[in-house]
Design brief:
Helices cover about 65% and strands about 5% of the residues. The longest helix is centred in the first third of the chain and has 25 residues. It is globular and about 50 Å long. The protein is mainly alpha-helical. The N terminus is likely disordered. A four-stranded mixed sheet has the order 2-1-3-4, with helices on one face. This is Prostaglandin E synthase 2.
Length: about 325
């Protein structure tokens, strides 16, 4: 959307300037009239008004085209869209966000049930006690990568039929997300007490907690995860959290090899997986640092634009 806005502003300036120097001057000096008399003076010239109208019409057309180009979702044929999709999740869970990136990109409407991580009462009915759990027309799907594979086979049958050597690259990087990238995240978002508190402020603000639980979880959870992150560093041989995060980001950019997406001109499942697990941290300090210190920012912005608005249904 930002790219569309920039292009629209640029086109507005150029188009109005070409239409009439007088109109251009008046747009620059009186775009916000301070009184009704100023407004009447601004629109007094019929020729000026027509020029502005023509300019705005041109800009509207450009903006519409830009919007369509930037927000390149992959909507499905109506007969392939599941009738009812319900996601049981934690808002900040990277695996849950990976599933949501898939659903959003393919414009599949879904309901969200936020699971209380303390009681897990929302999934007591399930033998599987982890999230995400996705219910698709009454069928239970579990494990984020398996969910995407099974749902993808149902709604994108041509992908299975058209599978080729490129699938090997896609599978490789989807595996990299599950086996490497996600393990780098926790040591970064809980790197110190301030970042741990920032993370838990996000978690408790978006999670399913009572007021008392929010206070308890924010401070007790932040303290606990600060120490857990140190164990994770040791387990995964991470010596410098930020360096590992930056290295992972650069590794992904190198994998793109100059392409807009790993999938070429549009995202594939590996793009959606990387984007999904990074989405919860993007605007935390760790995510801001990652974008400022690596080359991943441009790809991430392209992904934000391609995935577009969420298809999550309001409760």
């Amino acid at each position: 959307m930002r790219r569309a806005s920039i292009l629209t502003s640029s086109m507005l300036s150029r188009t109005v300037a070409a239409a009439s120097p007088t109109v251009h001057y008046r747009l620059l000096t009186t775009t916000t009239p301070t009184s009704n008399s100023n407004a009447r003076r601004f629109w007094s010239s019929t020729g000026s008004a027509r020029a502005v109208a023509g300019a705005l019409a041109s800009v509207a057309a450009v903006a519409s085209l830009s919007y369509q180009e930037v927000h390149a979702k992959e909507p499905l044929p109506a007969d392939l869209v599941p009738k009812e999709v319900v996601l049981y999740q934690y808002e900040a869970c990277p695996f849950c966000n990976k599933v949501k990136a898939f659903l959003d990109y393919y414009d599949i409407p879904y309901k969200v049930i936020e699971v209380n991580p303390l009681s897990k009462k929302e999934i007591k009915w399930s033998d599987y006690k982890k999230v995400p759990i996705l219910m698709v027309d009454g069928e239970q799907l579990v494990d984020s990568s398996a969910i995407i594979d099974k749902l993808g086979d149902k709604i994108i049958p041509q992908k299975k039929a058209d599978s080729n050597l490129d699938d090997n690259e896609e599978k490789k990087w989807r595996g990299w997300v599950d086996n490497h990238l996600v393990h780098v995240l926790s040591p970064n978002i809980y790197r110190n007490t301030s970042e741990a508190l920032e993370s838990f402020d996000y978690i408790t603000s978006n999670g399913n907690f009572s007021f008392t639980e929010k206070i308890t979880v924010k401070y007790a959870g932040a303290a606990a995860m600060f120490f857990v992150s140190k164990k994770l560093k040791k387990k995964y041989n991470i010596t410098d959290e930020r360096a590992s995060l930056y290295e992972a980001a650069e590794t992904w950019v190198n994998a793109l090899n100059g392409r807009e997406f790993l999938g070429g001109s549009k995202p594939n499942l590996a793009d959606l997986a990387v984007f999904g697990v990074l989405r919860p941290i993007r605007y935390l300090k760790s995510g801001r640092d990652m974008v400022e210190n690596t080359r991943i920012g441009e790809w991430y912005t392209r992904m934000e634009n391609s995935v577009g608005e969420t298809s999550r249904l309001k409760a």
